[in-house]
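Researcher: First entry.
Model:
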Amino acid sequence: MIEKMPVRLIHPQLVRSVCASCVAAAAIALAWSPARAAAEHESAAAAASVAKHSSANTSLPSVQQAGPLADFHGTPASAGVREVANWAFYTHDNHGRAVVILDKQEATVYAFTPGGYLVASAPALLGLAVGDGTVPGVGDKPLTKVAEDERTTPAGRFLAEPGVDDTGVDVVWIDYDSGVAMHRVITTFPEQHRPERLASPNAKDRRISYGCINLPIPFYEQVLSPTVRNLGAIVYVLPETQAPREVFGSWDVTDPAAHPPVVARRPAAPETATPHPAQRLREPQALRTSGSAADL
């Protein structure tokens, strides 16, 4: 029997709103005002520290220009996730879009509204091999020719792009040219036990894919897909072989002594989604299935 996948839904009323229609970021912030008030205690100290020191630290935006800190609403997250989330919203690196963060070390994904509020978190399946790059040409290989050490999920900042694979199943592309997408968990090969791995509390069990990011069906259909299609999203895939600041140029904006790192940041994702023709996933054929709200 497959255990229930631990999707943590923080604001179900907002998920329903996003699914129903294209909701403006300001409307989302208003709809969440009660939740925001309840969560202010958690982030008040960090926000006060930022406001106190931002004018003295020329590496940070001024108080008038600064965005909010991420509101996790009590959800546990690694230091890397918190750094990148706070930095993305505070510096407006998300350009007004929703934010999705994949913590590869914990094999967990977090989805935020454009205003910085966490909507939901969920476990994720990702590339079998440890690594933050993509082997050149791997997206063009037949899956049977992709070696185990080539099955990586690339780290970086990606513009999420809704699309379809070559079987007509909807996916969210993060690296179209390499065939890497976020999609419903695939069950093509029962011997891989992907649903069981997704339900496992052990992050190491969730390393199985060819590079794509497999998600619980309710999370994909009720959180990720409508968010990307209605609001747009930037996906930050955290590295596992280096620090986040080495990939994104991020820093701890809650630390008064922090400064932007001097790094050779990877090329930024384009800011406008480009329609793509159907593309073969770097995965076995996805099966079109639907989840129930009761599964969240």
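Researcher: Second entry.
Model:
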Amino acid sequence: MALTDVAALRKVLDLPETVASDADLQAVADAVDAAVLPHLTEEDHSTHESCREAALGMSVQVWQARHAPGGQMVGIDLNPQQTPHLLGPGLIMRFQGLLAPCMPYGGAVIA
């Protein structure tokens, strides 16, 4: 159950096949799936648009962290976004609103 596929990632990054191989893009998609899927319920989420959008957004950030100069994203004003925690736990937290419908509800029950 993959949340992101190579074709969608290539399209959103606007990368021609001469710039990035399918194997490079698949490695990014696999890394995001490995980070996201443990936080979701055990059903198939590959058809949930919100989960796919969250995974695609995370994939873009992982790609940019790996390939952008200095490992930083660049804003529309061409200034790098200054944050040292781009790929830390905050990555999933930034997309938690999109992932929330697919996350299990539960917690400690105090009796």
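Model: Note on the second entry: The radius of gyration is 15 Å.
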